[in-house]
Amino acid sequence: KEEIEIPKQKFPEVYSIRIERNDWKSKLTEEEKKHETETALDQYSSFDYVLQNEEHMEENIEKIVREVIYE
After folding, report:
1. N or C of the chain: less Cβ packing under 10 Å?
2. Cα(56)–Cα(26) distance, rounded to whole angstroms?
3. Largest CA distance in the chain
C-alpha cells in the first residue's frame, strides 16, 4: 500500500490504476500465489481507477488518460 500512498502524498498528479483479469490462469504455484508480493494490494480499495482487462481495455485507458490530462 505504501508503494501507492507515498508517491500520492509527495506528488499531486499521481494516479493509481488497478487492472483486473478475472479469467487469468496464472502459472505461479499455489504458494507463490499467496506470497505478499502477489496479494498485498488485493484488499486495497483506494485505487483511482479499476479496469477489467477486456476487449476494449485500450479505449478505457485512453479515456482515463484524457480525464487525467484535462481535469
Report:
1. C
2. 22
3. 43
Angle at CA of residue 26, ends 22 and 41, nearest 5°: 65
Distance in angstroms (rounded) separating the CA atoms of residues 64 and 44: 20
Closest CA to 17 of 39, 48, 43: 48
Measured distance CA(56)–CA(16) in Å, rounded: 19
Q: Mind listing the pLDDT tens digit for each residue in 33-71?
A: 999 989 899 899 999 988 877 767 777 778 777 877 776
Contact of 63 with 69, CB cutoff 8 Å: no
CB 28 within 8 A of CB 37: no
